[in-house]
Amino acid sequence: MTQKQFTHLDDTGAAHMVDVGAKAVTVRQATAVATVQTTPEVVTQIEQQSLRKGDVLAVARVAGIMAAKRTSDLIPLCHPLALTKVTVEFALQPEQGRVQITAVCAVQGVTGVEMEALTAASVAALTIHDMCKAVDPALVINGIQLQEKTGGKSGHWQREHVNHG
Q1: Which of 2, 41, 134, 149 has the fewest Cβ atoms nearer than 10 Å?
Q2: Domain presence at residue 161
Q3: Could you tell me which residues come within 8 angstroms of residue 113 by beta carbon, excluding any fewer than 6 positions away?
Q4: What is the pLDDT of residues 89-98, one digit of tens each?
Q5: Is residue 115 domain-resident?
Q6: Helix (H, G, I), strand (E, B) or coil at 157
Q7: Catalytic residue at 130?
Q8: Distance (Å, rounded) from C-alpha 112 to C-alpha 154?
Q9: Is residue 161 within 8 Å of 89, Cβ to Cβ?
Q10: 3-class secondary-structure state, position 149
């Protein structure tokens, strides 16, 4: 198998989904992060579950998990994967007005799960935005990035510094 086969362009330059059929099945995992920057008061309300829309983190967690499972429907040319693990966790920092999101996805497959982890973190952040925008319309989502990946031919990769915005 040549390196040229792992491109989203065919011999004519047209976009296509990469054929990964000959690749070895390995356990692959990816971790992505995102940060929601708002006010200390909003983070306290999220923590106390006192926003009118309900338990923001529970809804954002489910939204992130559902999004990871549907990544191939959202990202062109992304392979559909039978995920074996999806977690979406939150670290609340009321004094900084910050919610840090960490999404982890895993699969036993022939292609990685970076896009699934990034999608889960992004959609969880968007859900928090949606549920909090009436209280803080200036809320900002930033720092969406891959933090770590394991498995596959390229092995382990980890970002030296996580920028939480």
Answers
A1: 2
A2: no
A3: 28, 29, 30, 81, 83, 105, 106, 107, 149
A4: 999 999 999 9
A5: yes
A6: strand
A7: yes
A8: 10
A9: no
A10: strand
Question: Which domain does 83 fall in, by range?
Answer: 26-152
What stretch of H or E contains 36? strand 26-37
Residue 137 lies in a domain: yes
Considering its fold, how many domains does the chain have in total?
1
- CA 43, 46, 47, 50 torsion-angle sign: positive
Q: Is residue 162 part of a domain?
A: no
Between 161 and 97, where is the model more confident?
97
Is 132 marked as a binding-site residue?
Answer: no
Q: What is the pTM of this model?
A: 0.85
Q: Which residue has the higher pLDDT, 17 or 151?
A: 151
The verdict on whether residue 47 carries a ligand-binding annotation is: no
Catalytic residue among 10, 55, 73, 130: 130
116 assigned binding-site residue? yes
Q: Which one-letter amino acid corresponds to residue 82?
A: A
What is the DSSP code string of 60-127? Answer: HHHHHHHHHHTHHHHSTTPPP---SEEEEEEEEEGGGTEEEEEEEEEEEESS--HHHHHHHHHHHHHH
Q: What is the CATH number of the domain that holds 142?
A: 3.30.70.640
CA gap 66, 116 in Å, rounded: 10
Q: Which residue has the higher pLDDT, 154 or 132?
A: 132
pLDDT (tens digit per residue) in 54-80: 999 999 999 999 999 999 999 888 888
